[in-house]
Amino acid sequence: MRTLLITGPGGGGRTTLAAATALTAARKSTRTLLLTTDPPHTAHPALGDLADDPPPHLTLRHIDPAPAFHKDLAALQTRAAPALDLLGASRLEPDEFTPLPGADELATLRALRDATLADEPHDLVVVDLPPTPRALSLLALPEELRRYLRRLLPPERQAARALRPMLGRLAGVPLPADWLYETAARLDLQLAAVEAVLADRGTVVRLVAEPGPAGAEAIRTATLGLALRGLRTDMLLANRVLPEQDGNSWLAAPVAQQRKTLEEWRQSYDVHPVAHLGRDPRGTDDLATLAVPGAPTVPGTVDWPVTDDLAENGVLVWHLPLPGARRDELDLIRRGDDIVVTVGPFRRTVPLPSALRRCTVDGAALREGELRIRFRPDPGLWPRIR
C-alpha cells in the first residue's frame, strides 16, 4: 500500500487537488481511499459527486473527530473515577463533550492508522492534510508524544509494581496507578503504528500551491519542515496557472509573476502545472479536466547516512538533507544520546545512530542544502584497535 499526503498553504486548492489525485488513481483501477476532514457538501463542493456517486475503485471517507473524542473522554473519566472522587471533581455529561483544539489532528492520525490495518487495505491512501503549518505539527505529533510518554512514564518503572505501595508510603505521595501505565502503553502502540506509516518507503508528500511570492516562501518552509521529519516530496502541483497572454492584457503582470515562480520551482521540484479553469472546480468532470497525476512513483523515505572519514580526518560525518535551509536559522544542541536540530520554526529531537553515541560533536556545516555534522570518537568510549 502507498500513502500520499497532500498539503500546502491555505487557500491554494489543496482539497480539490487531493480529490482530483484520488480520482485519477481510481480511474486507473487503483483501489483508492481519500481521507479528508472537509465535509463534502459544504466547504468543498468538488467533493460532492465523489460522496454521492463515487466512481469504481474510489472510497471517500470524511474524518469526524467528535465520536472518537467522546469515546476517549468517557473512557478516561471512567478509569480516573477514584481520583476524580478524591478531588471532589464533578464529571462531565456526554452532551458537554466538545472536541478540543488538536482533536482534528489526532482523528486524522487515527484514520491513517486504521486504513493501514484494514482487512482489505487499499492500494493507495490519499490524505488531505490541513494547511502546511498544521500539517507539519500533525506529522511531528506521533514521534513527539512517544518521546513525552517515555520521559513521563518510563515503561521500566512499571516493573516495580510490587514495591509501589511501599514506595508510596515512603515518599508520602501516591504513585501512578497500573491503569495509567496500561493507557500509556496502549497509546504508545497506536502512535508507533502511525509513525511506521510515516516512515514507510511507500509514504510521500505532495505539495500544492499557487505560483507567486507568497506561495514560493510557503513551499520553501514546508519543504524544510518535511525534510527535518525525513519525508520526501514527490512533486509540486502549481495550481491555478493562468494561460499565457499577449503583452497588452491586464493579465500580463500576474502571468509574468507566475512564470518566474514556476521557473524557480523547476530548479528544485518536479513541477506539474494545473491550469486555472476560470471557476471553482465542481464534480468529477471538472476534477478530471485538471489532469492531476495519480499515484506517486518515487520512494518516500529520505536517508540520513553516516560516512566514515576516520582515516583522513579522524571524524564520522552525519548527513542531514535540509533543502532550503539557511545558516542563520540553524541551531544544534546535543543532549545525551540525542541531538536537537532547530531549523527556522521547526525543531526535532533525533536519537543519534549507535556509532555516534560514542563520539563528541566536532562541528557542523551547511553545504548544498545538506547539514553535515562532524563527530570525533571519544577515546574513553570508542573501541580500541589492537
Brief account:
The chain has two domains: 2-65 and 98-289, 3-Layer(aba) Sandwich (Rossmann fold); 306-377, Immunoglobulin-like (Sandwich). The chain has 13 helices and 14 strands. The chain has helices spanning 14-26, 48-52, 65-79, 81-87, 103-117, 132-152, 155-158, 164-171, 178-199, 213-228, 252-266, 283-289, 310-313; strands at residues 2-7, 32-36, 58-62, 124-128, 203-209, 233-241, 271-275, 306-309, 315-321, 330-335, 338-343, 346-351, 359-367, 370-377.
What does this structure look like?
The protein folds into two domains: 2-65 and 98-289, Rossmann fold (3-Layer(aba) Sandwich); 306-377, Immunoglobulin-like (Sandwich). Helix content is 39%, strand content 23%. The protein contains 13 helices and 14 strands. It has helices spanning 14-26, 48-52, 65-79, 81-87, 103-117, 132-152, 155-158, 164-171, 178-199, 213-228, 252-266, 283-289, 310-313; strands at 2-7, 32-36, 58-62, 124-128, 203-209, 233-241, 271-275, 306-309, 315-321, 330-335, 338-343, 346-351, 359-367, 370-377. Strands 3-2-4-1-5-6-7 form a seven-stranded parallel β-sheet, with helices on both faces. Strands 8-9-14-13 form a four-stranded antiparallel β-sheet. It is globular, with a radius of gyration of 25 Å.
